[in-house]
Automatic annotation (TrEMBL):
One GO term (biological process): methylation
Boundaries of every O-methyltransferase dimerisation domain copy: 104-173
Residue intervals of the O-methyltransferase C-terminal domain: 214-415
GO molecular function: O-methyltransferase activity
Top-level taxonomic group: Eukaryota
Keyword Methyltransferase assigned: yes
Protein name, per record: S-adenosyl-L-methionine-dependent methyltransferase
Entry keyword set: Methyltransferase, S-adenosyl-L-methionine, Transferase
Keyword Nuclease set for record: no
Gene3D superfamilies associated with the record: Vaccinia Virus protein VP39 (3.40.50.150), Winged helix-like DNA-binding domain superfamily/Winged helix DNA-binding domain (1.10.10.10)
Species per Swiss-Prot/TrEMBL record: Lentithecium fluviatile CBS 122367
Length: 443
């Protein structure tokens, strides 16, 4: 990784001790005491900040909702890593393997999704297993076994024996977009993940998008994106899933995109969000930057399943159908690609960049918000898990990999030497980096 242009703003010095425990000490108990101190000290920091911000203490009660303030990001990172490490140190290794490899967790999630169990119970309501079974159409006994397993993940609770209630987690699964994410995960992506290794064996060095676990699992000859283009229901599910992550996972909050670039300086410029799905990001930019004009482009099936642009920004945000493998029809001052390239192997990502060239004027910005793979153990561990997960997800679904800083630079160079690589930045708390390039071709 090239440090000169890669500038994550993590508080790096505090993390290596948490991430390399086995090399830290020869005294068996000292690491666990060290972790306990870190947890205690930083949990106090979190508690004090919550009190200062007049926020409730975190709870699984569906009535309680906490948005953690940004000033405790580092303390939370430390507590989350230290608690995980302490847990993993104290559990027998075989037990650890079995828990990390628990396919049963996903079976429970799939049952909840398939039978919409979360929607058969109102928030604040309780139902017996028999009542819930009648409401969701699953027999009482399997329902009870599946839900009691789910409860070990804090999905639903049993406040009194035989009686089921929502937790904050199961309540979130009722949200339209989160429900779509759960369906996509359990019906489309989990079976694909099971076939990832088979796909790697069958097509070891392929860059073709139809050589994936998804193709094997779903017995599909075409790339997943072709299926999405032809299947409005699936496209709607994918679009809603993207929105679920943006809206509910702070590491993907559009605010990080706002912090990564000087959008104000663009004034009333036109920005095209290429592959912008339902326009969630374009809308959030328009809401924040009152002069900015945006076009969010995506496939017909995705645009057709999008909700109308909210009235307050409708005059500055347009949803447009455009296939990004075909020449870009809109001349703009900046082009945004958010989580687009990570779905494409280098061969096809370079084609997307080439198709952008026709309307480009000298100096136009190309802004890519995507993961930039860190070296192992250089960012908080609980955040690294998300990036490594996404890395395998894009391989399973699209035959692509996430890229590190050098690979991003190489991608632009491969597409056209007139793309000048500018920099990579990553705000603290963000799962995604902003990779910036500039067009240096003719004006
Ligand atoms: C991972 S999603 C990212 C969506 C959005 N940029 C975001 O960050 O939420 C990738 C998007 O690319 C779109 N897409 C895939 N193939 C496309 C194509 N050939 N032309 C235009 N959009 C496409 C998908 O429909 C999807 O909305």
């Amino acid at each position: 990784m090239c440090a000169a242009f890669w500038s994550p703003s993590w508080d790096l010095p505090r993390f290596p001790p948490l991430l390399k425990p086995q090399f830290q000490s020869t005294i068996a108990h000292s690491r666990i005491i060290e972790l306990a101190h870190l947890i205690s000290e930083n949990t106090s920091t979190i508690e004090n900040a919550l009190v200062a911000h007049k926020l409730p203490t975190p709870s699984f009660d569906p009535a309680v909702s906490v948005t953690f303030p940004a000033d405790i990001t580092v303390a939370r990172d430390i507590v989350l890593d230290a608690t995980q490490e302490l847990h993993d140190l104290l559990i027998p290794p075989m037990n650890l393997i079995q828990r990390k490899a628990s396919y049963n967790k996903l079976a429970c999630m799939k049952a909840i999704s398939r039978y919409s169990i979360q929607n058969c119970l109102d928030v604040g309501e309780t139902k017996t297993y028999a009542e819930l079974a009648t409401a969701c159409g699953l027999s009482e006994r399997p329902l009870k076994h599946l839900l009691r397993h789910a409860m070990t993940m804090r999905i639903f609770a049993e406040p009194r024996k035989g009686v089921v209630a929502h937790t904050a987690v199961s309540q979130l699964m009722r949200n339209h977009d989160c429900k779509a994410w759960l369906e996509l995960g359990t019906e489309d992506l989990w079976p694909s993940s099971v076939k990832l290794v088979d796909a790697l064996g069958k097509w070891p060095d392929s860059e073709e998008p139809n050589h994936t676990g998804w193709n094997i699992a779903h017995n599909a000859p075409e790339p997943l994106y072709e299926r999405l283009a032809a299947d409005p229901k699936m496209a709607a599910r994918m679009g809603a899933s993207m929105s679920a992550t943006i809206t509910n996972n702070p590491a993907f909050d559009p605010v990080h995109l706002q912090r990564s670039f000087d959008w104000e300086a663009l004034g009333s410029s036109l920005v095209v969000d290429v592959g912008g799905s339902h326009g969630t990001v374009a809308i959030s930019l328009a809401e924040k930057y009152k002069n900015l004009r945006l076009i969010s482009q995506d496939l017909v099936s995705t645009i057709d399943s999008a909700a109308p642009v909210p009235g307050d920004v409708a005059d500055r945000v347009q949803l447009m159908t455009h296939d990004f493998f075909t020449p870009q029809p809109v001349e703009a001052e900046a082009y945004l690609f958010r989580q687009v390239f990570h779905n494409h192997s280098d061969k096809y990502a370079a084609l997307i960049l080439k198709a952008l060239i026709p309307p480009l004027k000298r100096g136009v910005r190309i802004l890519v918000q995507d993961a930039c793979l860190p070296d192992p153990g250089t960012i908080p561990g609980w955040r690294e898990i998300d990036i490594r997960d996404m890395d395998l997800l894009v391989k399973t679904s699209f035959n692509a990999w996430e890229r590190d800083a050098d690979e991003w630079r190489e991608l632009f160079a491969k597409a056209d030497s007139r793309f000048e690589f500018v920099r990579i930045t990553q705000p603290q708390g963000s799962a995604l980096a902003l990779i910036e390039a500039r067009w240096t071709g003719e004006a």
